[in-house]
Amino acid sequence: MENVTIMDHPLIKHKISRLRDETTGTNEFRALVEEIAMLMGYEALSDLPTEEVEVKTPIETCKTPVIAGRKLAVVPILRAGLGMVSGITALVPTAKIGHIGLYRDEVTHEPHEYYCKLPDPISERLIVVTDPMLATGGSGVEAVDFIKQHGGKNIKFLCIIAAPEGVKRFHETHPDVQLYVGCLDRELNKDAYICPGLGDAGDRIFGTK
Ligand code: PRP
Ligand code: URA
After folding, report:
1. CB of 82 closer than 6 A to ligand 2?
2. What tens digit of pLDDT does each residue of 65-124 get?
3. Dihedral angle at the C-alpha atoms of 72, 119, 115, 144, nearest 10 degrees?
4. pLDDT tens for residues 37-49?
5. Cα 39 to ligand 2 centre (Å)
6. Using CA positions, which residue lies closest to atom 2 of ligand 1?
7. ipTM of the shown complex
8. Catalytic annotation on 120?
9. 164-173 and 138-149 helices cross at what angle (nearest 10)?
10. Active-site residue, 203 included
11. What residues bind uracil, as annotated (predicted)?
């Protein structure tokens, strides 16, 4: 599928296996989410434009590349997407951070918005949306809808685990958005949880139930 990248790296695979383990505690879970986001961010940002600047080394003056052009905005989907932000800002410390608050109705599984604050103007930025889980795809699709309504154009979406149903819905609705998936799981269960998945990402990151 064009614009859909499934990660294939032993470090990401290993860390996702640790995430899945129900005995992995909150501290380790949080650290793993951050590390996976950093590894995925490294891949997703591999097409950032660079420009040559002049630098004086202790030996001589040379031309050498630095990141140029579009500025970055990281937009986590609250709550669970927050856990990925520090992994991306470790790579690009100057990134601005927006927030979109969505929760899934437990019965209908439909997303509901409760917060939206994005860097202004968003149209000139490369926008990296983060959410560890893409299940039905409803939350991801709605978050990108909001960003586009606010003028966002150049959007990448990073999720750690996705269900095939979510990838299909997301890609059909937003084929222009580059989707990066840490691992593509088997299916959704009747409660719209990803199988085998890792359970409720927000609860495991924040230690709530
Ligand atoms: C989870 C997850 C995604 C959403 C995925 O959030 O972090 O945002 O569900 O499901 P979907 O693809 O079917 O929309 P949740 O609504 O549980 O909120 P939380 O992050 O506050 O725990
Ligand atoms: N949200 C989660 O946190 N986990 C799932 O499996 C599905 C949605």
Report:
1. no
2. 999 876 999 999 999 999 999 999 999 999 999 999 998 888 898 899 999 999 989 998
3. -50
4. 999 999 999 999 9
5. 21
6. 133
7. 0.98
8. no
9. 20
10. yes
11. 194, 199-201
